[in-house]
Structures are given as C-alpha cells and as structure tokens.
Amino acid sequence: MVFEKPTNGLDPLWNRIVDETIGETRTGFAGTIVVVSHDITSAPKIAELIFLLQKGRPFGEGSPTELVRSRIRLAHQLLDSSAIAAEELLRARKCGGRKRHLDEAPDEPPWE
To answer: What is the pTM of this model?
Structure first.
C-alpha cells in the first residue's frame, strides 16, 4: 500500500488523524506500507523505517531513533528546521500508546 503525501496541505488536527489512521492501518495490514512525504514531523510518528532522499538519491536510512541519534548532518538539519524536539518526539512515540478521542481534553505530554 502506498500513501503519496497524505498530509499535504492539512491542518494539524487532520495531520494527526491521518497519522493515526496510517498507524492503525499498519498494525492491521499484513504487508508493506510506503509513505512518501516531505512532512518530517509526521514521518517519525508513523514510520518504523525512514529513507531520506536528496535530489532523488538516498543519503540516510534507519528507524526514527537511529536517525535522531545518527551523525547524519542533513538528517539533523531537517529535524531542526521542522521545529520539533527530536528526543521529545521519540519519548512521545514510546509513551503514546493510548489514543485520545477527539472530544477529550488533551493529557499532559507523555515526556513530562
């Protein structure tokens, strides 16, 4: 299954809904899911393995944790320019098992 830029042009609420739907699809699907995206904040939330491309050529690959902790300069530039705290994102990914219904008030972030 391939998702081509599934969150392109969406507001943050719909981004989260699409990310959660892809995550739920991944757990219930017995096959490979490929997500092509420029959304560096979304990719670490939903991916088990990320391939980074520059000018159509791969320059890095790994799990979100491996990329955050890697020495790949361009990977860090992408994460830094996206205004996300990479380590916090990884902690949230580990602790965020319970999905919140849209009508519920947000919980404290799992990394606090």
So the answer is: 0.64
Facing residues of 102 across strands?
Answer: none
For the chain, the straight-line distance linking the first and the last C-alpha, in angstroms and rounded, comes to 35
State which amino acid sits at residue 93: R
Q: How far from 34 is each of 1, 3, 26, 39, 41, CA to CA, in Å?
A: 6, 6, 10, 14, 16
What CATH class is the domain 2-95? Answer: alpha beta
Give, for all 112 residues of the chain, the pLDDT tens digit: 899 999 888 888 898 899 889 988 888 888 888 999 888 778 888 888 889 888 888 888 888 888 888 888 888 787 777 766 666 666 666 655 444 444 444 444 433 3
